[in-house]
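Okay, can you check this protein?
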Amino acid sequence: MNALLEIGGLEVAYGPSQVLFGLDLELAEGEAATLLGRNGMGKTTALRAICGLQPVKGGTIRFAGERIDGWRPDRIGRAGIALVPEGRQCFPNLTVDEHLVAFFANRRGVAGPWTPAGVYELFPRLAERKKNLGNQLSGGEQQMLAIGRALVTNPRLLILDEATEGLAPLVREEIWTCLARLRAAGQSILVVDKYVEKLIELADHHTLIERGRVVWHGTSAELDADHGIWQRFLGI
């Protein structure tokens, strides 16, 4: 199966401080994959590089067969990559409905695209708050809005950075249920999160990084079978 996302030898630095050292990662169309590691190991930096938000020092990033490292973030977004960023980053002065209407696009002409109405069906709580401003939502509601905002761009690849961080357990479960539904529908997903048990249920394969280097890669079954890897690289 051809890779939808193919990262080869990725190197990223902030000034003189190098963060990623030769990261390799592949994800096929319709797969879900994770990038795992302790805090500060380079996971968010890798996602920012994929989305064009952080310059690449070395290596390559290919999406749907095209090399995209060096592209502007808006071009990468139009190509079909959507990021649900850490911290949600909803606009405080836009309503829920305005967020979804402003971001809606179906550039690839997919049948049955995600629309604001579809997002309200996925997250009924947002439908109840469609006239609320971004800063009038709870943390969980903002996370639902951040996911919905990404979905209405109808991406080929949905990237989520700590989508369940800081959420109440019931809201967290709602987010995991949403991701499982997306996965079952064939949405390609790359996710960073700390709840390994849930990620094993969701994803096909996992890449672990330590100090910016890949230290392990394998399937969900392999990760589930070796909790020593969790203790060594994830601090669990």
In short: The mean pLDDT is 94. The longest strand covers residues 3-14. Strands lie at 3-14, 17-28, 32-36, 58-63, 66-67, 81-84, 157-161, 188-192, 205-210, 213-219.
